[in-house]
Amino acid sequence: MGILDIKDVSKRFGGLQALSDVTLSVKENSVHAIIGPNGAGKSTLLNCLVGKLIPDTGSVMFDGKSVLGRSPYEINQMGISRVFQTPEIFGDLTVLENMMIPCFASRDGAFELNALSQFMKQRDVLETAEAMLVDMNMADKRGMHAASMSRGDKRRLEIGMCLSQNPRLLLLDEPTAGMARADTNNTIDLLKEIKEKRDITIAIIEHDMHVVFSLADRITVLAQGTPLVEDDPQNIRGNPKVREAYLGE
Ligand code: ADP
Ligand code: MG
């Protein structure tokens, strides 16, 4: 059993069977990559894990508890954090202000009316956000408008915002899409560092094979809504079925 266990998950959109009987287990503290051609159902699968879509059939268990029927907020509280395909940061706010948002959200929900306790909470949030920027190697950018940063730095900020919630499972949907090579390499280094330093499991959807082979401990190839093969990276490279279906050889 893994930290994430997906069993027989199917999802249909009208006449289109986007996922059929997907079974996949993600081992704790591993980096599990999900690859496959465009339209294979990768994002649909991810959306089923975070409560954005509800599968028609099957089960999704995180740390032994079902995520199905829970809201995205509840699933986030369970310890699953997701990085979107396009960065979800607030361009008009500074880097530090962006980082403060999830730090506010991860406090307990109790609304404090007392001015002193409000102030203390704010100070606490500021400290947490600043420490997180140091952790992300972004302290020097704290006053910059988020919109003016490079794509790689925007991604770094967004990943930091996710990590500030201390998730046990980080989900990434094509985190290097549209990036220049230097930004891609930067993102690879960041994810490697996170993998080494933190007690975290990462599931990553990725098109760029350089990224996949740099990071993944395990790879699942999805084709037409079904897992075609799951194996270690070195076996995926040489697998003729994979080369045919995905690598286009
Ligand atoms: P991938 O991320 O692997 O490229 P997706 O999961 O986005 O693939 O899409 C799988 C299939 O489901 C595609 O054919 C896509 O057009 C279709 N699809 C995805 N989301 C929806 C939706 N909300 N409504 C209808 N069809 C959808
Ligand atoms: Mg997608």
TrEMBL record:
CDD domains, per database record: ABC_Mj1267_LivG_branched (cd03219)
GO annotation, cellular component aspect: plasma membrane
SUPFAM superfamilies: P-loop containing nucleoside triphosphate hydrolases
Sequence ranges assigned to domain ABC transporter in this UniProt record: 4-249
Keywords, ordered alphabetically: ATP-binding, Nucleotide-binding, Transport
GO molecular function, one term: ATP binding
Protein name in the entry: Branched-chain amino acid ABC transporter substrate-binding protein
